[in-house]
Protein 1
Amino acid sequence: MPDGGRRPTDPPAFAGAALARLAGFAPSPVLDGRLRRAAALCEACADVPPDADHPAWAALLDAVTVQETRLFRHPGQFAALPLPDLAARAHGEARPLRLLSAGCATGEEAFSLAALARAEGAFPAEVLGLDLCRPALDSARTGRVTDGLGDSLAWVPPACRAWFAGGQADPVIMAACRFRRANLLDLPPDLGAFDVVFCRNVLIYLVEEARAAVLRRLLALLRPGGVLALGPTDRGPDNGEALGEALWRKAD
């Protein structure tokens, strides 16, 4: 119980402060509204130290994380990815191309990366999606494509459309994808290195200290010469080559 055994008088306010420490969430009207709608879940967390793996806190995180996503969202970034070059390097080292979707939500970004790799001849490829929201990850593992706003295939390149017929990712796409629950502020030590890291429309929800910490962790996962994709309003790393469309290549 926080504050020397005293229960918080405002559970949503207490929970918001705790989530800032636990996952780096920045205060915002959106977060405040979600916390107040989840007041009962906040109350359940009042006696428990913040821990993303505790059932009470995990349920609250499920309720407040933003899960907006679409296939090939920000299509210019996908078009600018130098996947053939990265794949040639990976294959020359006798390993698959590895791509990370950090904050993968219901999986559309991971599906898009797998489809693009397939279309550009960059297979074998492995795509890992990370997120804190358990229902979103459950949805991702089914391969269902969420409707979103408008036509879910509107931004999908013609060469990739056949793999999303009927609102379902094709088995060849799903075979390349894995999904795992993880806090970007406390990444598991066994993730390995990646040729491409996507972390888009995630950092905007974090306090500045958490943004910097997550960016450092993601850059540490990126192989030399690998590419980092951020959201269109995110600040990129201070070093590395800017490729445009919020893409950066890590120095060799």
Protein 2
Amino acid sequence: MKNILSVEKIEKYYGNKDNVTKAIDSISFKVDEGEFVGIMGPSGSGKTTLLNCISTIDNVTTGKIIINNSDITRLKSKALDKFRQNELGFIFQDFNLLDTLTSYENIALSLTIKGEKSSEIDGKIKSVAKYLNIEPELNKYPYQMSGGQKQRVASARAIVTDPSLVLADEPTGALDSKAARLLLEKLESLNKDLKTTILMVTHDAFTASYAHRILFIKDGKIFSEVVRGKDTRKEFFNKIIEVITLLGGDDNVFQNSCK
């Protein structure tokens, strides 16, 4: 199986010599093509910093991050911008849609930035919109849509460029339970049907139960790993809760239950 992401002994420090904070402490792991991996941990554990480094938003202090055979820790500004456009898709908690553009235009923008031929853009948008059930929303502006609809538009924007890796940062954090379930089912389908490789940060056990493997972060290190295997989602959810209890993590993870 092809390796998509390889994180090799990365460390991240903040501050100066008089006041240094070690946010990431020698973390290593791999994600293969077609995997759906979740990252969990209590507040301040380093999970968001880890995602920021993988997404090229932040730089590591030491170590390597290799995505689709490219060491992103060595790429310079212009090369990094091009890499981001071609290889990564992003789903944010707060959607990050442009209010002055329709859903169609928001999705098209990522293709335009990538340099796709104008003759191919329309077909790609309509194809991904049909898959995510957002065809009726294509001509709407963000203020005309629900949170769930906006997040599915954001998901369409993330995958329409066919990236090597989709990075999701608390994708259900701003959604109600019904919209969250619908989005997670769509992400699960993207992973299963289109072999989309997904790395998702979440504090919520219900959301995490849709992944196939969970990495638990504590104090900047990998604390534990849980693999779903042949477990049902409910069984996997219960395993996640057991690790969270050991972690002594956020109370918020208990607010949802697997139904």
Protein 3
Amino acid sequence: MNSTEAMKVALELALNSNETDVPVGAVILNSVGEVIATGTNERELHNDPSAHAEIVAIRNASKEIGDWRLDSHTLVVTLEPCAMCAGAIAQARITHLVFGAWDKKAGAVGSVWDVLRDPRALHKMEVTSGVLEVECAQLLTSFFRKEREAK
């Protein structure tokens, strides 16, 4: 599975996620491109501030393979990771990050900060941004529009 195909899976997860959380989907691919784990935002669902889609997917992948080290794995997520998620991605030793929409308020992979490509970072990884960016951004825009209208 390539990055675009994986992003379509992540978008589908986000579209079908619980209605109270921001619709973000994440998938983790192994070295041959197979989906081994998925995650969606579950902060509101579980009252857990760390339950971002990326962290949920990392936890699921670690359980699946029986190791916290996800080197040779790719994380594909619909929204640019925040600082917490970027740190978790680095700590999990993920080799490649792919994301869709930019997060100009809290993004930590180029928008506000660049945690993963900081020259002082101990773990180096490849980052691909803007995959199906328009579709990912539209999903979020639609969600927040509905949230504002409901208030």
